[in-house]
From TrEMBL, chain A:
This is PH domain-containing protein. Residues 69-143 form the YdbS-like PH domain. Keywords: Membrane, Transmembrane, Transmembrane helix. The chain crosses the membrane at residues 13-36, 42-65. The keyword Nuclease does not apply. Signal peptide: none annotated. It comes from the Bacteria.
From TrEMBL, chain B:
Residues 145-165 have a biased composition (Low complexity). It comes from Secundilactobacillus folii. This is PH domain-containing protein. It comes from the Bacteria. Residues 61-140, 273-350, 440-501 form the YdbS-like PH domain. The chain crosses the membrane at residues 12-35, 41-63, 203-222, 242-269, 378-396, 402-419.
């Protein structure tokens, strides 16, 4: 584990809501299949499978939230951004500030409601995501990255 | 040339545009041929079409103009939707010149200008027909930029190293190149040249011919026929074909395979005909082609990585193909989107590459193999993957499906091969050598630290126990990313490279 910042605590709420979203979506599909079984004689196992998948998926979604939160770290130092995530599938990425081409901040309705923002960091080849930060941090981060990025000679694709 | 003048293309551009419009109308030909209209109507229609196309081509030519400025080129095009492209010379990745044989007598070429911008499969700037004089002028300006130390070139050390090469190596005939006179300030212009021999071209073509591209070609031909011919004709043809005995089908198959082999062989020979690689003023240029002479030039500092590619066949014959990864789509017709730098050379001639690109080591580096724990996992993964087709085939296609079991020893071999090739090592303070193998082909990649866009270490929970990790190095290729994956590396080794890349410790 790197000695970085954790995501804001509120991201757990967002994850719970999105897990709830999957549950609703799965139930809708299951309902549709039940309808199809009743009126057009589709197979019953299809309904059962959909229901089982929905339940399992939602349960896993809820269960891993603490782990997901615990293992998500990011660190912005003077010359690089590091992002770390995952327990079962652990990934640690380094992006030197001098390779960053642009930084995008975005927020969907749930994130907006929770006053959070997603940070997308783009290089000439890849895009990296810091799942969510507080607006203050986002602004600060953007400033920091942009000043650092304009301060160094661009040595990416040139 | 203080105030840039708006210039038209060479008038031959009208011909180019005309044929382009014509090609886009080609689907109309069967419609006209199969229609039941009267002859006179058809003739009138065709004549009208020709006239309209001519007018369109002339109008387009009239509105297609460009300005060659001191710092940038501006291209105006479009009639209804006007377009203006502005490309600073400092941002040009590759300059591509194409000349069909029938344009040679007129000294007219097509030019494509590519930057690192992501304009998907299309050059940022293109001049469909301009005179040789214009091209030379443009090339001179681009060269000047790539030499200018202020133009943000990170590996300036390579520039210095190149200039210290002995004068004796200057093999260019300087009277042919006016820009050489201009650049006397660059103490020595290190000129290098490589010309492919007929024997090498032949070897390259023969060792490149694969069965898969041929089959894909046939499939493509079939789908084209399917599009062009009416359904009735196609069905009839397929029916008669099926009625023939099994033997004839086999014969036809073998014949088409042979034909495909010959065609793809000739295609490669045609494409790399009289291949010439040259270096002048930090600019690498490849020139090739029989019917269409295709010249691509890129500044040495724009090279994202150098790949030494060997298929098993080439490995056995002691041959290497050398390719350059560029942030440009000018090379999309070549081997997996890389610019072919040296089609095929003998293993012993690898030091040639160093003469053109001085940060490449003089020989292929040796690698420490990954541990057996890692190699065993590579084999296991290959076998797992082979089970995807094998299991259903064995289950559902009882007698014949059993043959698919032969895929499993093949998978073991593939995993064994890939595991044996895998390796990474640092060759100097700023360069890495990476070797990856897959599908019986190995790539040795030399890449500089500034061209690595990001680096990741990946480790699943099962790899934690045995202290293995994947190291993923991302570089820019064409308009996209190429991820170099060094898999099942010892965690300590992966962390060491990662630390070197991050450039500091805690």
């Amino acid at each position: 584990m790197i000695k970085g910042d954790a995501l804001p605590e509120k991201i757990k709420v967002v994850w719970r809501i999105s897990a709830l979203g999957t549950l609703i979506f799965g139930l809708l599909i299951t309902g549709g299949l039940l309808f199809a079984q009743h009126f057009w004689g589709w197979w019953q196992w299809l309904v059962l499978a959909a229901l089982a998948l929905t339940v399992v998926y939602t349960l896993i979604g809820f269960a891993i939230i603490p782990y997901r939160y615990r293992y998500w770290r990011y660190r912005i130092s003077t010359d690089s951004v590091e992002i770390e995530s995952g327990f079962f599938f652990h990934v640690l990425t380094a992006i030197p500030i001098s390779r960053i081409q642009n930084v995008t901040l975005e927020a969907g309705p749930i994130l907006q409601w929770q006053h959070l923002q997603t940070v997308n960091i783009e290089t000439a080849a890849t895009t990296h995501k810091i799942e969510s930060v507080l607006p203050v941090t986002a602004e600060q981060l953007k400033e920091q990255i942009m000043t650092l990025a304009t301060g160094v000679v661009d040595d990416d694709t040139d | 040339m203080m105030t840039p003048i708006r210039r038209h293309l060479n008038p031959l551009a009208i011909v180019v545009f005309w044929f382009r419009y014509m090609a886009s109308l080609f689907w109309l030909v069967p419609v006209v041929l199969f229609s039941n209209g009267s002859r006179t109507f058809e003739l009138l229609g065709t004549a009208g079409c020709f006239l309209l196309l001519t007018i369109m081509a002339v109008v387009r030519y009239w509105w297609y103009r460009f300005e060659i400025g001191n710092q940038a080129i501006t291209i105006h095009s479009g009639v209804i939707f006007r377009k203006q492209v502005h490309i600073p010379y400092a941002k040009i990745q590759t300059l591509q010149r194409q000349q069909w044989f029938y344009f040679k007598p007129f000294h007219v070429l097509a030019v494509s200008i590519e930057t690192a911008g992501q304009s998907h499969d299309e050059a940022e700037g293109s001049l469909p027909a301009v005179s040789q004089r214009v091209v030379d002028q443009l090339q001179k300006l681009v060269n000047k930029q790539s030499q200018d130390p202020s133009s943000a070139v990170s590996n300036s050390s390579s520039v210095i190293a190149a200039q210290s090469q002995p004068v004796a190596e200057q093999r260019e005939d300087s009277n042919r190149s006016p820009e050489l006179e201009q650049n006397r300030s660059a103490a020595v212009s290190a000129g290098e040249k490589y010309k492919i021999s007929w024997r090498d071209l032949n070897t390259y073509a023969l060792t490149s011919v694969g069965v898969v591209p041929i089959l894909l070609g046939l499939l493509w031909l079939y789908s084209k026929l399917d599009d062009l011919l009416p359904d009735r004709v196609m069905n009839q043809a397929v029916n008669t074909f099926v009625h023939y005995s099994f033997l004839i089908i086999i014969a036809v198959l073998i014949f088409s395979l042979l034909l495909g082999t010959i065609v793809s062989y000739l295609t490669i020979v045609q494409r790399y005909y009289h291949f010439v690689l040259s270096k002048r003023n930090q600019q690498l240029t490849t020139e090739k082609g029989f019917f269409q002479r295709n010249t691509i030039s890129a500044s040495q500092s724009r090279i994202q990585a150098v790949i030494f590619r060997q298929t098993v066949l080439r490995q056995l014959l002691g041959l290497v193909s050398v390719q350059l990864v560029l942030a440009s789509t000018a090379t999309k017709a070549e081997d997996e989107n890389n610019l072919v730098m040296l089609p095929v050379i003998d293993r012993s001639k690898v030091p040639i590459v160093h003469r053109f690109i001085n940060w490449v080591p003089t020989d292929l580096p040796a690698f420490d193999p990954i541990s057996w724990a890692g190699r065993w996992r590579m084999i296991r993964n290959a076998v797992w993957l082979s089970l995807i087709p094998v299991v259903p085939l064995v289950y559902w296609l009882r007698p014949w499906g059993w043959w698919s079991l032969l895929l499993m020893p093949l998978a073991v071999l593939m995993g064994l091969y890939a595991g044996r090739q895998m390796g990474i090592r640092q060759i100097d303070a700023t360069h890495l050598a990476i070797r990856v193998g897959s599908h019986f082909q190995r790539d040795t990649v030399i890449v500089a630290k500034p061209k690595l866009q990001s680096v990741s270490i990946k480790q699943s929970i099962w790899m934690k126990r045995v202290e293995l990790a994947h190291l993923i190095l991302n570089i820019r290729q064409g308009d996209d990313v190429q991820a170099l994956r060094v898999r099942y590396l010892a965690l300590a080794d992966a962390e060491q490279i990662y630390g070197w890349y991050r450039g500091q410790t805690d």
